[in-house]
């Protein structure tokens, strides 16, 4: 087996192990973050035993410091999720790893893994990084570590920054935790909203938009009424969506069945027509016996026929 094929086979095995490991770590971090959020809600909840307002203020400050750990944990979980997607991409396109040069469709994933793997605690992912460096060379790895060509994903670079979270983000996290665990926080803002709703004093209000002038009677008489006006059918049928089997679907409503004469009725009609033609030939000229549309017999002829019947 060629050396490149051997490296690709090792990369494939380590990618599978990395995906499993990344998913397990994400589940673990998510469970820990949920416990931390519950503890944070207890800090934010106002306690009736604390008569000193400064003690409650101290609890809020402690919550603001601890919530940064939750924010950092969430950012790390998001980073692991991105790396998991890149590992799945490489695993699905292992055939492209056989080439000597890195395929442009895999360059972002490969360089992002080489850039981010040392900053994680996933040993399997670090093994994948070593194999990729062995596969594409030190110059390629150096360009990925320094991100000199900007091929590393921007979201990966942003997740790995060590800047402290913004104050607005911390406030948003605390408010979301309080809302999730039904904690009356922040107390001052809630009291202010309740006082504003219960006050009877007129507020400043907003400017009312001037309504348009009503139309004159003559213009209303000339106007065309909308077509939608009037009773509608209580039955409405939504058109079916196109599919691969039927690209142009049509609605077919059930109607009365179309009656077609059977073979027995068709044969009977033919027999009747044949007998009528034969009777017309045997009868008197200029008329047909027993058929509508022939010559009407007079009284003498009827009497003669009646006499013949009595014999």
Q: What's the arrangement of secondary structure elements?
A:
Layout: H1 3-44, H2 53-92, H3 104-116, H4 123-136, H5 138-146, H6 154-159, H7 167-180, H8 187-198, H9 217-222, H10 263-282, H11 299-310
Helix pairs in contact: 1-2, 1-4, 2-3, 2-7, 3-5, 4-5
List keywords for this structure.
60% helix; mainly alpha; 0% strand; 311 residues
In short:
The protein has helices at 3-44, 53-92, 104-116, 123-136, 138-146, 154-159, 167-180, 187-198, 217-222, 263-282, 299-310.
Structural account:
The chain has about 300 residues and is mostly helical. The protein is built from eleven helices and no strands. The chain has helices at about 5-45, 55-90, 105-115, 125-135, 140-145, 155-160, 165-180, 185-200, 215-220, 265-280, 300-310. α2 (about 55-90) crosses α7 (about 165-180) and α4 packs across α5 (about 140-145). The termini are far apart.
Helix content: 55-70%
Instruction: Give the overall shape, derived from the CA principal axes.
Output: elongated
How would a crystallographer describe the biggest sheet? none
- Uncertain stretches of 5 or more adjacent residues: 188-195, 199-203, 205-211, 241-248, 283-293
Number of helices: 11
Structural class: mainly alpha
Kindly report how far apart the N and C termini lie: 119 Å
Radius of gyration: 45 Å
H/E series, N to C? HHHHHHHHHHH
Strand content: under 5%
Give the tally of β-strands.
0
Mean pLDDT across every amino acid position? 75
